[in-house]
Amino acid sequence: MSARMRQGGLRRQRGVTAIEYAILAAALAATLFAVAGDEGPLRNAIDSAFGRVETTIAEGGE
Q: What is the superkingdom listed in this entry's lineage (predicted)?
């Protein structure tokens, strides 16, 4: 197996891992929203964090 093929596999694995973490983060956020309600500092912090994630994904950055 060439180095190029191994490197491509690593990139795909990193992408899959990133998606898995995003799914876990979304599930955790949904749980926190259910517990904490619609208002308050926790909600604002989570909204801010997801906003940063969306921006990073939209820009294609790391």
A: Bacteria
